[in-house]
Amino acid sequence: MIRACFLVFAGLMVLPALGKLHIGMWPLDKKRDRYMVFEPIDYVVSIENVSPNDFPLSNPEGVWLDFIVKRLDDGRTMNKEYTTRQQPVLLRPRQVYNLQVNLSTLFTMRDPGRYQVTAVIKAAGQPQLVSKPVYVYLDVGTNLWRDQRPVGESTLTYNLISFRHRQGGTRLYLQVEDIPNNLVLSTRSLGPYTKVINPKAFFDDGDNLHVLHTIGMGSYGYSRISARGDIQNQKIFESEPQNPPRLRKHPDGSVLVYGGFAKDKDLERPTLSENQQAGQDEAPDASITSLRLDRPQADKHSQHSEIENSESFEQYLRERGIDPSSTKAKGTATRQSSKGH
Length: 341
Fold this sequence. Notes:
The chain is an all-beta fold. Helices cover about 0% and strands about 40% of the residues.
């Protein structure tokens, strides 16, 4: 999915000028530099035209933005799983183009360790420009629950995994694997997790997985997830005196939460990973996501206005509104170790 964003950036995390462009990278969640293996690694790439002239971002191959990813533990350069092609973009003077990139769908970052990531601009007729490197730490979590279930012609393995972020505490993840085909179909955060009691999980007769876990003293997170790992519903439940929420399977095959009471506020929905499937050479649109197209203003804090007077930009804008949840990110995946860290 590609949506585009031109913003006046108030200097935050924009790197020193490289020729005619400033190039910066930072995590979409600025509190994070540590990720669980197979979860989305979402970064923002910011490209600012600091010259007085228009700067076209394009080349004949259609790949003007690329990355170099190295695993510092052993010096390996990571292989690309996909070729990413981007629409040509014309950067006006002082405009900033922000793109969101999911690195985990583009590169074979499958092993725990420390990675160095550099963005590379390959504009036609220009020398290659690179950003300063950023550093990403990958690790495995602690497997708390595991079950297998036939789904269609496959037998899928479901794992509930706790993983501690450097900042932001511990979260509970659901990972769905197709082990016979060596695929990880989904790795999704179900929300904050505190180890008061182990999470409870049951399948209903429709192959949906129901999970109840503690998120704080007397507070519980509930999630209903489809057989392939899509989150369908999430709620927060609070305990009542002598009556904490409990997850039970009903004789009719349904799974219900008994006890406690549901709060009006839904459990915060995290960024979700994309399904990974084998057999594609072209990157899914969801791998690189641009944000919005705006005209910069003299005042850093003023509103941004839409770019006009360009047929190519109008066409590009019409193509940007793709829903990421409707696009499956495809790629070869090796299975994650379930050992704790």
